[in-house]
Write a structure and sequence with these properties.
Length: about 190
């Protein structure tokens, strides 16, 4: 059954149009990423009615791709995930405090894990590429694709750019919009 859940602060007029959603398999948790770096998570009121809570802008630019997977090893939450946008605006769902990130306590220091935390992607380049989609097979194997036929791989500790020659010539245009992997050696990317 389809139903709507309110989020009063997103719309195209204020630059927070939603771009991607990812939900826990049981529907008890979810996240939406938006234009302008907007981020929302799924909440339930006392009557059990769902609504989307604005988490504030942790990114600076548009965010497009999002994927969350189950992680029974999570310290404070059973999920793991990444969202992607501009190379400077990658974020992961943090359930503890790993190295190489700004962490839940960035800025005013009011957030505690679990939370979405901006991360140093390691994918900086002069063009500041937008990544459009991300897919995780597990915590140590993820793929992101985007503008200019960009492709990157997550190995559990860092993102690495895949050389342009690894992607076949795509006649439909230079942007890859979505990726889904079947295994660590087989998957589909469309653009």
């Amino acid at each position: 059954t389809w139903r709507t859940a309110a989020a009063s602060s997103w719309n195209s007029d204020n630059g927070h149009g939603p771009n991607a959603v990812s939900l826990a398999p049981d529907g008890s948790w979810g996240t939406i990423v938006c234009d302008g770096g907007g981020l929302y998570d799924l909440q339930f009121d006392n009557a059990g009615t769902p609504y989307w809570r604005d988490l504030g802008l942790i990114g600076l630019n548009n965010t497009y791709g999002l994927h969350v997977i189950a992680d029974p090893t999570g310290v404070r939450a059973p999920y793991y995930g990444w969202y992607v946008g501009l190379t400077t605006d990658f974020a992961f769902y943090q359930t503890n405090t790993p190295p190489n990130d700004r962490g839940c306590n960035e800025g005013a220091g009011t957030r505690t894990s679990p939370c979405w935390a901006t991360a140093i992607s390691g994918l900086f380049n002069a063009a500041n590429t937008y990544y459009r989609s991300v897919y995780l097979l597990n915590k140590n194997d993820g793929w992101a694709v985007g503008d200019g036929k960009a492709m990157a791989h997550w190995d559990g500790s860092q993102w690495t750019v895949i050389p342009a020659g690894a992607m076949p010539d795509i006649a439909t245009g230079p942007t890859i919009y979505s990726v889904r992997m079947l295994s660590n050696r087989s998957g589909w990317a469309v653009g």
